[in-house]
Amino acid sequence: MNLEAKLTFLQQFPLFESLNSAEREQLSEMMEYKVKPRFSFIYQPEEASDHLFFLARGTVKIGTHSADGKEVIKHLIHPMAMFGELGLIGEQQRTEFAQALKEDVHLYVLKVSDLQRLMRNNFQLTTRIMNSFGSRLVSAENRLESLIFKDARTRIVDFIKDAVLERGRRIGYEMLLRHSLTHQDIANITCTSRQTVTLVLNELKKSDLIYFNRGKILVRDMAKLS
User: Fold this and answer.
1) Chain segment 123-135, per-residue pLDDT in tens
2) What domains can you pick out in the chain, each with its CATH number?
């Protein structure tokens, strides 16, 4: 990947809006461009947390496995987002895995130490990164509350609504979400079962609240989806 393409990516990446042209050029020289095949692991538990990643294309799931081997998806990473960044706050070894979903992912890899060097000289960059950690913590707390106080159906519906609001596209009065998730993935995100996800989606479809097929969910009316 040439320097110009890296600079274009950095100019579009929200986290790096505070960098000047010299800092962007310095960062681009330190980053390495990689393409990972679909379903491949970017990293796994117990690997060193000495690199972080910036996603350019594709979708990545961040997760872990319970003692009985059940997968739990903690986050979904979409383009123009950072992941694997816990090394910035002292993580030595990974406790989570990062895996590509059903398409190849294009990403940039950076050493934690290189970003830390930039952070020491750019207070705005440090603030943006700390804010991203704060948002991650709030998201984790909201998810914990959802698991405690909401039933399985509500968690699944809330996941659909949040995903559509975040990444959906309006088509007339409807909202279309394109995604890379299986029913099992949605179950692993919402801490339910694949069978429950299928039942809820079919019920919503029968009620004409949504239409779905492989890779697409069309919400007929966001206000009525509940």
Assistant:
1) 999 999 999 999 9
2) 3-148 (2.60.120.10), 151-219 (1.10.10.10)
